[in-house]
Design brief:
single chain, alpha+beta, Nuclear Transport Factor 2, Chain: A, seven-stranded mixed beta sheet, globular, NTF2-like_dom_sf
Length: about 180
């Protein structure tokens, strides 16, 4: 569990160029396809060595409660992982003991509402997106996950690497039998 890292980057408030936005949007679509195809070998190549992948648990709160449950990395989280922990989760799928993935789950990731802003760090971009992820397993097991993502992507040579991802689910209770999905 990562506790001392932050998902914040100072931004310039400026939108990225049309070309940068297009390139990053295509990267998000490519990433979604990799996840749909369970092409984790290539997906991991998109992840930076200093990755922070965070999906906090969201509690129902009254508006007057100003607790920031999304940004507090010490609160309950479904994911609060670095690259090593993500690789460990993925290696479990190769052991043959991941009963929740035999037979395999079928996935569809839909990414939309992509916005790209410049950060104060040259070559890094803050990318906002919405997602819908559908999972189906066996005959009748279906799950739909809906939410927002706030990413930091770093330009590396002629491609991008995911440095940070905050996933904000619109569900406060997950009724799924497992959470074997990356968003």
């Amino acid at each position: 569990m990562i506790q001392n890292a932050t998902l914040e980057r100072p931004t310039t408030g400026q939108s990225a160029s049309v070309e940068q936005t297009h390139s990053l949007t295509q990267t998000l679509y490519r990433e979604a396809r990799m996840l749909d195809e369970e092409n984790y070998v290539d997906w991991v190549k998109l992840l930076a060595d200093d990755l922070l992948y965070h999906m906090p648990g969201i509690e129902t709160r009254y508006r007057r409660d100003k607790t920031d449950q999304v940004k507090d990395l010490t609160r309950m989280a479904y994911y609060n992982d670095n690259l090593t922990e993500i690789k460990k989760r993925l290696s479990r799928l190769e052991t043959g003991t991941a009963w929740s993935e035999d037979p395999a789950t079928r996935y569809t990731h839909i990414i939309t509402n992509v916005e790209v802003e410049l950060t104060a760090i040259p070559g890094e971009y803050q990318v906002f997106s919405n997602f819908y992820a559908y999972r189906n397993r066996n005959e009748r097991e279906e799950d739909s996950l809906i939410g927002n993502r706030i990413d930091i992507w770093r330009e590396v040579e002629n491609s991008f690497q995911l440095v940070m991802r905050r996933i904000i689910l619109k569900h406060n209770v997950l009724i799924s039998k497992n959470l074997n999905i990356f968003l």
